[in-house]
Amino acid sequence: MFDCVVIGAGVVGGLVARELTKYNLSVCIVEKDSDVAMGATRANSAIVHAGYDAKEGTLKAKLNVRGSEMMESVCSELGVKYRRNGSLVVGFNDEDAATLHSLIERGHKNGVKGLSFLEREELVRLEPNIGSTVSCALRAETGAIVCPYELCMAAVGNAMDNGCELKLGFRVEGIEEKDGVYRVSSSEETVEAKTVINCAGVYSDDIAALVGDDSFSVRPRRGEYMLLDKECGSLVGHTVFRCPSKMGKGVLVSPTVDGNLLLGPTAEDIDDKTDTSTTADGLARVASLAGNQVNGISFGKVITSFTGLRATGSTGDFIINSPKRGFINCAGIESPGLTSAPAIAVYVADMLKNDGFALEKNDSFNGTRRPSHYFRELSEDEKNEIIKQNPDYAQVICRCETVTAGEIIEAIRTNPKPTDVDGVKRRTRATMGRCQGGFCTPYIVEILAREMGVPVTDITKSGGRSYINVGKTDKGKM
Known about the structure:
- By secondary structure, the chain is α+β, with helices and mostly antiparallel strands.
- Among the domains are: 154 residues, D-Amino Acid Oxidase, Chain A, domain 2 (2-Layer Sandwich); 95 residues, Orthogonal Bundle (Arc Repressor Mutant, subunit A).
- It is built from twelve helices and 22 strands.
- Strands 1, 2, 9, 10, 11, 12, 19 and 20 form an eight-stranded mixed sheet that branches. Strands 13, 15, 16, 17 and 18 form a five-stranded antiparallel sheet that branches. Strands 6-7-5-14 form a four-stranded mixed sheet.
- Strand 15 and strand 16 form a beta hairpin.
- Helix 1 packs parallel to helix 5, helix 1 runs parallel beside helix 8 and helix 2 crosses helix 8.
- The mean pLDDT is 96.
């Protein structure tokens, strides 16, 4: 029996699990998919929000600001890329200017530092490519960018290295509580725990309902994105937002920590919790709005598009509560959920303490982790020293992103271990470049099959039945 079971291996669940391993607790994460970071964490704006947008006094406001303050040190501990590039919220008219001033006032009430209002002349000095019709902007100096799935994988991996167990392919179908012990069941397995923490994203209302809590609902909000080639990554330095609306913070134009340019998202409330399709209308809207905010976007350089689903709760705020002892909801964690995740983890631990659970410090906890991207950042001499010991690091598999066989093999052997091509992609960036895996995928399949000891026909693109190879060709018939 575990002390704690965390349902959901997204960035919130991963950081909660890591936080709990700081104490003498046995922790398990159960995740319905074949890998971690497969929900909202896999596809979002990757922004560390400053905290000016959330209504003062809400959990969103409190945890946003605290999470923003924590994020740089958490990323440093976990070896995750973080860049404080600052944010700009642009306005086009007097009405927008009034909104921006109100956001600054709200930000000050929330405790956000480094907020200012810019007229066009000063704004153009900061961002020469700002849209021609932009007249003003809010500047938030503490805004930043990270890689959300990299943060999630590092958090889960660090939790596992500190004793946490990860169960993939575990779709929760039932939760029963008797005498202070919860039995969490899938169709094939049951785990027992004293505490259950619901971090199931768009499915968190379904999980809560299993213990009789129907006090809230969660609806997916679809957001479509476009990602441009790295040659476009320097078009802007800041993350450039539009004035927010009731549907969210609007379309943004932002560099990424890996050097690309990101555009999006749209905001559309839907009912299907699995619909991550892109649409011609949605992508056209992204292009239109982004082109209005920033001049010179080369839409011919788009290398991929994708859709993420935000878990929009019915209360208008994060839903972090305990409907019964030993069960905690972390639901409705939409934007600024990524930013807030480190603070949510501490908040959950404090809830357990306040509920009478004894949390004794784990003196053997090691919160640091080597960056997954360390090799490419070494000097030529340092790389050559590693290559002398292991020639796999001299073999470049993905030429677009310059990812070596050694890095791919190391990723496959590191917690949490990938089992498909997209899992390798998220850990190493192999297949994320201009050709989107057109050349390197067969080599990655071979490495995965060899490392896992299975036929190449067993390797999938993204789990399930997404097979890449169906069999070997008969040389005599070619």
